[in-house]
Amino acid sequence: MLATVRRNQGSPAPPPTASARILATGTPRLPAAFPSTIGSPSKRKPPPPSAGRQRGARTPSPDPLQSRLPHVQLPESPSRATLRAIPASPSKRKGKQVERPADELPRILPDHLHPLLERQKRAILKSLQHPPEIDEIEVYGEDYPPTNNAAYEQLSELLTGSVVRGEGNSCMLIGPSGSGKTQIVEKAIAQLPSKPIVVRLSGHAQHNDRLAIREIAWQLAQQTGQSFLPNDPEDAEDEEQSAPAPAEQQAEGDASLDADLDVDADGDDDENPFVERAPALPPAENARLAITLPPPAHLLALISMIPTLPRPTIIVLDGFDLFATHARQALLYCLLDTAQACRTGTGSGSGMAVVGVTARVDTINLLEKRVKSRFSGRMIRTACPAKMEHWVQLAQAVLGASVVSEGAKEGADEKEWGRMWAKAVEAFAGSEDVVEALKETYALTRDFQMFRRIMTRLALDLSPSSPFPTIEKLDSATKSQRCPPRLAPLDTLPYPAVCLLIASVHASASGHDTFTFEMLHDAFKTQVRTSQSAPVQVAGGGVGMAFERLVDLRVFVPAAAAAGSVAKEFALHRSGVDRFEVKKAVDVIGQLSLKRWFTKA
Ligand SMILES: Nc1ncnc2c1ncn2[C@@H]1O[C@H](COP(=O)(O)OP(=O)(O)OP(=O)(O)O)[C@@H](O)[C@H]1O
Ligand SMILES: [Mg+2]
Fold first, then answer.
1. 343-377 tens-digit pLDDT
2. Is 582 exposed, middle or buried (0-12, 13-18, 19+ CB in 10 A)?
3. What are the strands, taking DSSP E only, across 261-386?
4. Does any ligand 1 atom lie closer than 6 A to the CB of residue 319?
5. Where in the chain is the domain with CATH 3.40.50.300?
6. Of 113, 446, 489, 583, which has the highest C-beta tally within 10 A?
7. Is 556 near ligand 1, meaning CB less than 6 Å away?
8. What stretches of 178-295 show up as alpha helix (H) in DSSP?
9. Could you tell me if the CB of 77 is within 6 A of ligand 1?
10. Average model confidence (pLDDT) for the chain?
């Protein structure tokens, strides 16, 4: 062994710079020389940190290996650093090169995997749009009822009743924001055996009944492609005649609907955008619009005709609580009354379902008695994921989205990437820091939208120079979703300002919640005079300016209205930061004199 070492050291080694250059250019000679020039591989087992140098030293005798060089070419990628441990025989190396990253993740992504990183990012963003389903029984155990699954089943059953058996139904979906209400409604509608007419309204957009009814009329006409006033051809004709003068029709319509519904007392509500655009459309489209939007006076009659439409109708009212604020709850009354009539068999033809969606738990109490009596009283609840493991599994499932589309064949690069990525995601989701960070967010909000925003940011932050999810990236993504701090970091304040802050802590400790500049300055001067560990005296003017700066930053806030008779240095102020924040700043600054003074408080 000693002899070998000596031989190595004594050999005509090129200077280190030369060997470094050889390594840097990526010549394939060096790895090949390493295994073959040394007789006993056992002596090389722990690869020395200065392997480059040793390899360099051996370069004078690579001649017999020249013919093998093409086999052992290392990739030109930066990830070569990760392939440091070179296998004993060149023939084995190729296989190892592929497997190596699975054991040890490269810090910088090799070039040939760059497109796969981009595909992975796209797959993550896609899976955030349609989050993968988590096995709730595995997370919550057998006893815990998976709330959203139960909600989905109840809603599906109800809608199937309307669509298949022609029932009239109503229900309310209640749950916090981001708990999957809209998702459940859409999923339940999509799984129905036949395609119903779906009218989607939102209390945020249709903020009065007139707008809501027009929207219903519009959506019905879009989906049925016909007039829905078949029994009253005169009205349709009237309407067609009045179509060229929409403004007139609007004014007239407004007046009659207001009289009928008491909706908009002021009567100058915004124009219907569809009517306004009508003249710009081709004549055929124009005629259709005219049929679509009958005079508002007749609009309410449409609702009672919904069950006579050829297909069953589902009306989804998002922001259901906002509809309850409409005048006399006329629209809700009509809708629920029609649905109930359908249920009791007085309605004819297709079924109808009214689905209210809301995040407000007391919505039922907002309904007037006559409206409530027509509501079926069916309340379906949704909930956000209730356990920490759910979020962790969700994060793992979202990040683990496959880059290979279903049915496609996996190439070698995809396999290599798949292995690497799975390992990185497993390490990420298994890390305690990550669980802790998710817990912090989860303690603040359980809204899935927040999770989506954080994960989107995390995915966008992945780059070839840092291709895998890390706790740092998660932290920065989470931070971007939090409110920025109200105040600038206190430790960046100038020295005199920190002294004043400490003096204000002392003032508050001695019972003076409000203070003046003079009081603080006095405390500061006393500290300088009496203590050996006093803070450095500050040249005149510095403290006064520091005080004004703190007031500007709103760290010190005026405690009384400014009065002309009170000099500036005697104006009362109060501190906007608490003792712990000042302590943190003093600790960060780390000056012993400041620390000692602070601990006296
Ligand atoms: N438990 C969950 N698991 C997976 N994804 C969920 C879950 N709950 C909600 N989501 C997702 O959250 C997103 C938002 O859900 P959705 O829009 O249905 O919420 P919402 O209850 O309608 O919220 P809002 O009251 O704000 O309208 C959807 O993309 C949905 O896929
Ligand atoms: Mg919603």
1. 655 545 688 999 999 999 999 999 999 999 999 99
2. buried
3. 313-318, 352-358, 379-381
4. no
5. 147-381
6. 113
7. no
8. 181-190, 209-224, 233-242, 246-261, 273-277, 283-292
9. no
10. 73
One-letter identity of residue 171: C
Ligand 1 close to Cβ of residue 182 (< 6 A): yes
Q: Which residue's alpha carbon is at the smallest distance from atom 27 of ligand 1?
A: 177
| Mutation probe of ligand 1 site: the residue of 128, 179, 398 with most atoms within 8 A of C-beta | 179
Confidence at 169, pLDDT banded by 50, 70, 90: very high
pLDDT of residue 233: 41
The CATH label, of 3.20.20.370, 3.30.450.20, 3.40.50.300, 3.40.50.10490, for the domain at 147-381 is: 3.40.50.300
**Could you tell which of 182, 321, 396 is best to mutate to test the pocket of ligand 1, judged by most ligand atoms within 8 Å of the CB?**
182
**Got the DSSP string for 65-87?**
GGGGGGGGPPPSSGGGGGG-S--
What's the CA-to-centroid distance between 181 and ligand 2, angstroms? 6
Contact 183 CB / ligand 1 (< 6 Å): yes
Q: Is 446 in the pocket of ligand 1 (CB under 6 A)?
A: no
CATH topology of domain 490-599: Arc Repressor Mutant, subunit A (1.10.10)
The protein residues having their C-beta less than 5 angstroms from ligand 2 (an ion) are: 182
* Percent above pLDDT 70 for the chain: 67
Atom of ligand 1 nearest to the CA of 129: 29
Nearest CA to 98 among 417, 527, 512, 441? 417
CB atoms inside a 10 Å sphere around CB 284? 8
pLDDT: which is higher, 327 or 5: 327
Res. 58 pLDDT band, cuts 50 70 90: very low
Ligand 1, atom nearest to 128 Cα: 29
Ligand closest to Cα of 448 equals: 1
Q: Where in the chain is the domain with CATH 1.10.10?
A: 490-599
Distance 124 CA to ligand 1 centre (A): 17
Per-residue pLDDT of 537-586, as tens digits, reads 555 557 788 888 888 888 898 888 777 777 877 889 998 888 888 998 99
Whether 182 has a pLDDT exceeding 60, the answer reads yes
449 Cβ below 6 A of ligand 1: yes
Name which residue leads in pLDDT, 219 or 268.
219
359 lines ligand 1 (CB under 6 A): yes
Confidence of residue 35 (pLDDT cuts 50, 70, 90): very low
> How does pLDDT run across 456-476, given as a tens digit for each residue?
999 999 998 988 999 999 999
Ligand 1 close to Cβ of residue 177 (< 6 A)? yes
- What contacts 363, CB < 8 A, 6 or more positions away? 172, 174, 320, 321, 324, 356
